[in-house]
Model the fold of this input.
Amino acid sequence: MSCSKKNLVYTTIGHSKNYVPCLQHLFQSIFTFSPNPNFDLLIICDESLIYDVQSCLTKVCKSQKVHIESILFSIVPNALTPMRSSMQKLRIFDIDNIHSYKNVLFIDLDVLCLCPLNPLFTNFEELLEKHPEKLERLQVCHERTNYEDHKEIFWSMDSYSDQDIEYFKTNKILPFNAGCFLFRVSKQMEEHFTNVRKMVIESYKNRKLFFYEQAFMNVYFNSSNLIAYDIINPLIYKMFPDLEEYYEGKIIHFCGTPGNGLVKFKTMESYINKHSIFKIFNNVKDSKSLTILPLETSKHVKKCKDEIPRRKIIL
Done:
């Protein structure tokens, strides 16, 4: 697939090899339920994990045939902590040719996609045609329905006033989960992501640490009323799933235990085995197999400098 105004789905992996099996399950679910994708796939990957990731995905793609021509990589400095690793999703506008893509969907590693992803992009296009005023909004799913929850560490930087909460109530702005979001690529959205990264850098310099990237994204996008819940919502996105229930047609996010890749993998593995999710995988009939672009030659691969101060900080 060329990247001339196509769609892009991306994820990030870093800090620990324990997350690599999670990546395998995520991609296997995408290949299973989106056999004819209208999107490219990108992984923003710690430098130290690139070959483990390639080896893992090669095994998945060797055993099954999928209709994706390439996986793109962006190599970033190794994350010292899980919290630093979570910030890597904010680097999306560092990617070469990112403005050649039209829409971008982010999906966390600890996710299974039990639905085709193509309709999300189709529905997004239809929404923007009818409501162009939502072009510059981040499509997210609310995680709580109580406006007072904005003040919790998961969605704040310990700075909200009573007036801020009233603003959220008036505009019906709720705390959102940063494990899945969708946006239209634009210079304005690039500026938004740049501003969030500046907030992160300033926070680290001042030793003011908050809950992963989610707190920073909530404060920035919510405070400016730059979010929408049309596409990524509880009808399609399930957080903290009940392991006994099969969520057909949904994106399920195994939230919790941040920074513990092994626990997340075991939980995902248990859910997959219980519901025999990938039995259908053997019936996918596509003629093209996945080709991973060589790191030495791919113009899509980009090494980024580490912009966050790298002094020892316990997170």
